[in-house]
Specification:
five-stranded mixed sheet, homodimer, glucosamine 6-phosphate N-acetyltransferase activity (chains A, B), transferase (chains A, B), acyltransferase (chains A, B), alpha+beta, 6 helices, EC 2.3.1.4 (chains A, B)
Amino acid sequence: MPFTPDAALDLLFTEDLIPQHVKNELPSELHIRPLSSTDYGRGHLSVLSVLTQTPDVGAAAWESQFHTLRSTPATYYILVIVSRDTDQIVGTGGVFIERKFLRGLGRVGHIEDIAVSHGMQGKKLGLRIIQALTHISENAGCYKTILNCSDSNIPFYEKCGFEKREKEMAKYAAGRAHTPRL
Amino acid sequence: MPFTPDAALDLLFTEDLIPQHVKNELPSELHIRPLSSTDYGRGHLSVLSVLTQTPDVGAAAWESQFHTLRSTPATYYILVIVSRDTDQIVGTGGVFIERKFLRGLGRVGHIEDIAVSHGMQGKKLGLRIIQALTHISENAGCYKTILNCSDSNIPFYEKCGFEKREKEMAKYAAGRAHTPRL
């Protein structure tokens, strides 16, 4: 598949929220941009499947979710990294912006679902995604940006400027398996 | 102030999402309901101030935030517990529903900002708020409900059916103090 330029895509949010310094650090054969309405066909779910169960919901349901997220004002910011050679997605991650009453109607950015395809790991793509999402979060006025990670990933996130805070506790809905995140 | 019945209030979401079994467990002088558009005047920010910095933003800004949250479709569910004697808020907590692509367009409920006023602690109000929010989250189709807590609160949340998962990492925006949550 030939590479599709941003101008030919219907994006989740405006491209200029992604900081130039992150774009500059990417290998030249890769491109970082907002999720687009046609990224189902570029392997978005396949990349997410490195994290947890990600059944193929089909293009129509995927697109419907895309439009639901986009219609939620200034809340969901999901990025993808695309190979210019194949037009396929090799990495993704998102941040959503929570609005609070405390901290002077403060906002908190929650980074979620950072995934890099198996063949592209070790190229610091996860780091670039985190840097871009943290920038977007702070630019949106968040007083803090948080993420949850396994013990083995703590040193990586500390290098990204994050510090340990609290414990994440989870309760699974009845009848749904406890599937650890990898 | 005389107690204001739900029917006289403009609520954040429909009252019948709060499970009856939680209402039944509350002391009779207390009432649990969705946040209302006039709860600025019932001490909502004062209760939140037990958690962290909660400056008084004024009634107009508070109400504007209320309407922003309500206009975000099926995302923010904030509860309050009100004293029938004083019509003042004595406890609050919220869950917001995140929509994902993985897990078959799965949803995760994030419980945030559980606060009980100092004079009302020890009455299991936090537990009742958690039970109601978890019910709302699961009823909204979330495959899991998560929260972040300090080590000292882990036994409490384990009793609520939650299990330890990951570490929360946080990055504070430049120029904003690192204020630990109490």
